């Protein structure tokens, strides 16, 4: 088995396959500050609900599962978006967060 570089943060294990990796804290920068004291141990492991839908069930499921995509778009896509819609779109980067203690 090949050797890999690993770091642990807040109970998550990060694996880096680079030969000479940048340390995790350096790579993620200020994003770690947003979650450093977040109580991950209190998060629920699953969530369920029932709903009666008079329509396309697949569209309803996709809407729930894809909640995080609309406000974060690849930079190349945002130039093709109208100025009115672009006001709520933020270009996605490697450290973009959808929700953190500071943003929610």
Q: If you had to describe this structure to a student in words, what would you say it looks like?
A:
This protein has 104 residues and is of the alpha+beta class. The chain has a domain at 1-44. It is built from 5 helices and 4 strands. It has helices spanning 24-28, 31-35, 57-65, 75-78, 83-86; strands at residues 5-9, 12-16, 72-73, 90-91. Strands 1-2 form a two-stranded antiparallel sheet. It has a two-stranded parallel sheet with strand order 3-4. The longest helix has 9 residues, at 57-65. Residues 99-104 have low confidence and may be disordered.
Q: Average pLDDT, to the nearest integer?
A: 72
Largest sheet: 2 strands, antiparallel
Order of helices and strands: EEHHHEHHE
Structural class, by secondary structure, is alpha+beta
Strand order of the largest sheet: 1-2
Shape: elongated
Q: Whole-number radius of gyration? A: 18 Å
Low-confidence spans: pLDDT under 50, at least 5 residues?
99-104
Q: What is the number of beta strands?
A: 4
What percentage of residues falls in helices of 4 or more residues? 25-40%
Q: Please tally the helical runs, counting DSSP H or I stretches of 4 or more residues.
A: 5
Termini separation: 41 Å
Strand content: 5-15%
